[in-house]
Amino acid sequence: MKTKLLFALLSITVTLPAHAALNVLACEPEWGALAQELGGDKVKVANATTALQDPHRIEARPSLIARARNAELLVCTGAELEIGWLPILLRESGNPLIQPGQPGNFEATRYVPLMEKPQRLDRSEGDIHAAGNPHIQTDPRNIALVADALSKTLASVDAANAGYYQARYADFKTHWTAAIARWEAQAAPLKGTVIVAQHQAYPYLENWLGMKQVATLEPKPGVEPSVASLTAVLAKLKITPAKMVIRSAYNDGRASEWLSQRANIPAVELPFTVGGTPGANNLYGLYDDTISRLLKAGK
Amino acid sequence: MKRTLIASSILMMLATSAHAADDLQNIRSEIQQMKASYEARIQALEARLAQTEAATKQANTKAEQADSKAEHASQTAAVAALPAPSNENAFNPAISLILSGTASHSSLSPSTYKIGGFIPSGGEVAPNPRGFSLGESELAISANIDPDFRGNFMLAMAPDNTVAVENAYLQTLGLGHGLTASAGRFYSGIGYLNNVHAHAWDFTDSPLVYKAFLGNQFGDDGVQLTWLAPTESLLVELGAEIGSGRSFPATTRDKNGSVAGALYAHVGGDYDESNSWRAGLSYLGAGPQNRSYDDTDVNGVATTNSFSGKSQTWIGDFVWKWAPNGNTTVRNFKLQGEYMHRNETGDLTCTGGACSGVPGAYQSAQSGWYLQGVYQFMPHWRVGLRHDRLNSGSVDLGTGLTAADLPILAAYNPKRNTVMFDYSPSEFSRFRVQYARDESRPTEADNQFALQYIMSLGAHGAHTF
Question: Are the CB atoms for A68 and A25 separated by under 8 Å?
């Protein structure tokens, strides 16, 4: 009976229909959006998470395991951002194409210089990432670097459409370079702006736009802000006043509102990734909206 | 004379002043000219200064931009040159250790614990020892072996200094077609909670159905094959296992081939972004031989009873999780329930008491279920409720043995209500307080209080849904 069952299972797998588009599973929406930009109608993109979910705390939901089983390309941040759930997906998927080390397993942080490599690796420091800060998507110049690598990966896993991907990448590069110049011009007044961030999620944005972060609301990375840690931040702001407190769309707003009221500075919710705000409906919108929200608060 | 002197001097002065008036005019005009020319020069200088400043600024900006570009480029070059980072520390396996401990208070002694109406399962099903006790310390080691296999190992060190191998198995990595094969010692994939390790339970102990039907958890030495259907976002998973029958309700036998086997199916998906679910149906079949347990007969004489025959267990399980927008950080809710039904048919023998040597039959159909909900109402804090119920169902002893020989099998429907409250300062540490009113024993209800800590050291483990 068992052998019969096995044969039945195998026969089902053999008779699967051939698919048309390349199945891409993106761990975070920014990579899904980038894969869509570069892959056009040759790819079918599914995002494992949304901008309203904390990328550090995702559950290995049954639907994600089903999607991992069929994915031909996995596009993730890497640098241990997905360590709490992606290993389960990979192990249970039974899918050889997306296993670590395969061309179908793409980690964006491998192509970008990472900031904030911890000096001390110890859990007493909170939820730190040994490879460095993984939130690279807040600097569009990093997106350009990842786009270059991802277009090559697309061309290698789907060699039949390599020319198509190259053309789309060239097109994207032109538009993206122009957009970066536009954003840098728009964001010029933000240079030197002193800010407070809820989570240590924005070093790349601050580096890009020349903003200065004086404090984070989380006492240690990944540790929820407490009244004590917020009070300490408030005391710090008395010495070094900040212009605004920023948080990501998935963050609970109470901590930054608390500080906003007491320090009398605006609390700014940033999209953090594609889909975080109505304006951030694609990769371009992500930076348009981020900069316009910062400029509005900085006035 | 004096007068002339004065007059002449006045005259001289007047003459001088007349002359001076001319000069003054000249000087004034010269100064005017000088002023004008200096102003012009200053203006010119100022203009040049401004120009220079602007140029410097531009140069600086350009230099800065060039610097940042160069930095970006050099860093990028450095990154491109770097080898791919290894997930698991330079070939060392991922090692993690779980520390746990409890302080318990119970009105009845855990040493007399027996679930009324059911054959004792022999597992470590008794409530926590009274007073302070160390829980199991679990040491887990895992790593990819090569591109094709992964190895998992988990050692459980019990507080009495005994060591048990809980898991030791290899698993294929991406066999293709959604297939995954495992071999070794593992917790069976039946039910929902069966392959969840104790440190990830939402209560300090397992549900009564797991205690009564599976001796806490069914683990076996054998092979497992799972297959995922090529569905888009609906999980359809089928699994099959065969093994040596190492744990209750099976027993190992001196026999070639398999002694116990399990089949299961899981279906799961997302209702929307906030709601996810999974449901399953499992079957566990075993042919235990001389599965023995200690008992006392109605006269208080110690007996050793043993069952040989066929044991079939069916499990239906479901779990539903809710979190606003799928973001579990602040609030989330988890509802889970399982139903188990077991049929056993075979021979029951008894030695020690009046029943010694009496040939006996045993046929039973028994069932039970639990339902539990755990709600995280704010970051770090959760509260949970659980209701357990068992039904001893029908037990048919045939013609030989009588109910008096086997008092534990007297019909009884155990139940238990549990409430728990826990605090997790981080995802690596947890403190829990739990109260249970346990009516497992027909004689008396047991009030159990427990305080527990669970700490996780080392590698960041990934948890299943």
Answer: yes
> Hey, are the CB atoms on B228 and A63 less than 8 Å from each other?
no
Cβ contact (<8 Å) for A13 and B427? no
A177 contact partners, CB below 8 Å, separation of at least 6: A144
Spatial separation of the C-alpha atoms in residues B374 and B367, rounded to whole Å: 24
CA nearest B251: which of B304, B195, B306, B290? B290
Distance CA(B71)–CA(B77), nearest Å, equals: 10
Label each residue of B116-174 as H, E or C: CCCCCCCCCCCCCCCEEEECCEEEEEEEECCCCEEEEEEEEECCCCCEEEEEEEEEECC
Q: Which amino acid is at A233?
A: V
Q: Which DSSP helix (H) or strand (E) runs through B258?
A: none
A273 min Cα distance to partner chain B (Å): 15
Closest CA to B213 of B319, B313, B361: B313
Give the containing element (helix H, strand E) for B196.
Answer: none
Is residue B74 within 8 A of residue B94, CB to CB? The reply is no
Q: How many CA atoms lie within 13 A of A17 on its CB side?
A: 5
Is the Cβ of B339 closer than 8 Å to some Cβ of chain A?
Answer: no
E strands, B159-300, are: 163-172, 179-187, 219-228, 235-243, 260-270, 275-286, 291-296
- Which of B419, B435, B427 has its CA nearest to residue B459? B427
Burial of B86 (0-12, 13-18, 19+ CB in 10 A): exposed
Model confidence, pTM: 0.83
Q: Which of A62, A67, A91 sits opposite B465 (nearest CB)?
A: A62
| Long-range pairs of B391-395 with CB within 8 A, sequence gap ≥ 24 | B391/B366, B391/B367, B392/B116, B392/B117, B392/B118, B392/B366, B393/B364, B393/B365, B393/B366, B393/B367, B394/B363, B394/B364, B394/B365, B394/B366, B395/B117, B395/B362, B395/B363, B395/B364, B395/B366
Query: Is B150 touching A (CB cutoff 8 A)?
Result: yes
Write out the two tokens for B32. Answer: 């005017």
Contacts of A126 (CB under 8 A, 6+ apart): A218, A219, A220, A221, A222, A223, B426
User: Mind listing the pLDDT tens digit of every residue in chain A (299 residues)?
Assistant: 445 554 444 444 444 444 579 999 999 999 999 999 999 999 999 999 999 999 888 999 999 999 999 999 999 999 999 999 999 999 999 999 999 989 999 999 999 999 988 888 888 877 778 889 999 999 999 999 999 999 999 999 999 999 999 999 999 999 999 999 999 999 999 999 999 999 999 999 999 999 999 999 999 888 888 899 999 999 999 999 999 999 999 999 999 999 999 999 999 999 999 999 999 999 999 999 999 999 999 88
Handedness of CA A126, A127, A133, A135 (dihedral sign): negative
- The one-character DSSP state at B47 is H
Cis status of the peptide bond prior to B249, with omega within 30 of 0: yes
Q: Is residue B194 within 8 Å of residue B172, measured between CB atoms?
A: no
Cβ under 8 Å to A: B residues 116-145: 144
Query: Position of tokens 């009274």?
Result: B130
Closest CA to B153 of B161, B164, B162: B164
Cβ contact B245:B251 at 8 Å? yes
Nearest to B335 by CA among B415, B424, B271, B380: B271
Chain B residues whose CB is inside 8 A of the A54 CB are 327-329
Nearest residue in chain A measured CA to CA from B327 = A53
Q: Enumerate helices (H) and strands (E) in chain A, giving the number of each.
A: 10, 8
Question: Nearest residue of A to residue B238 by CA position?
Answer: A9
CA dihedral for A12, A15, A20, A22, sign (positive or negative): positive
C-beta of residue A97 within 8 angstroms of C-beta of residue A71? yes
